[in-house]
TrEMBL record:
Gene Ontology CC: one annotated term: pilus
InterPro entries attached to this UniProt entry: Adhesion_dom_fimbrial, Adhesion_dom_fimbrial_sf, Adhesion_dom_sf
Pfam families per the UniProt record, alphabetical: Fimbrial (PF00419)
Swiss-Prot/TrEMBL GO biological process terms: cell adhesion
Protein name listed in UniProt: Fimbrial protein
Coiled coil ranges: none
Protein origin, superkingdom: Bacteria
Record organism: Pseudomonas fluorescens
Sequence ranges assigned to domain Fimbrial-type adhesion in this UniProt record: 26-158
Length: 159
């Protein structure tokens, strides 16, 4: 018998020793959508700073709380709730929303820490963070008298 024939015979014999086993696999599941959330029943949250002295904008004076409530539908899964403030940041502060006055922004705080815009933060529905806002000016800028406004979106969503 040649070496090649011996190898073929050995391969056939070893196949006979291994008994084949197979099983079917099935996969299933349910796709779920996270429950919807609303902030202040979908109403606009307004913070009025009133009259602001152009020489008194220092990132401390005029600090105001942002009152809000978050309501979410019943959740059946352990979803992670995220909160973000989405808007246009100033060039000098990633936690400040640009206002209609180029050198003026509104810095946002969450639990006394700067809240970077457009960055989701993990939160708990039972204890959402305390939000505060304060006017800030671009370093070295001189503010002139003018009306100002800024707009941002407060977003709560499950992930």
């Amino acid at each position: 018998m040649t070496c090649w024939q011996q190898r073929a015979l050995l391969a056939l014999w070893s196949l006979g020793l291994c008994s084949g086993a197979s099983a079917n696999l099935t996969f299933s599941g349910t796709l779920n959508e996270p429950p919807p959330c609303t902030i202040d029943a979908g109403n606009t949250i307004e913070v009025d700073f009133g009259d602001v002295g152009i020489k008194r904008v220092d990132g401390v004076k005029y600090r105001r709380g942002v009152g809000y409530t978050i309501s979410c539908g019943a959740d059946t899964l352990p979803w992670q709730l995220k909160l973000s403030v989405n808007g246009t940041a100033t060039a000098y502060d990633r936690s400040a929303v640009q206002t209609s006055v180029p050198a003026l922004g509104i810095r946002i705080y969450q639990n006394n820490l700067p809240f970077q815009l457009n960055t989701p933060l993990d939160i708990s529905l039972s204890s959402p963070p305390v939000l505060e806002v304060v006017p800030v000016k671009q370093p070295g800028a001189t503010l002139l008298p003018a009306r100002f406004a800024a707009v941002a979106t407060l977003l709560a969503e499950y992930e």
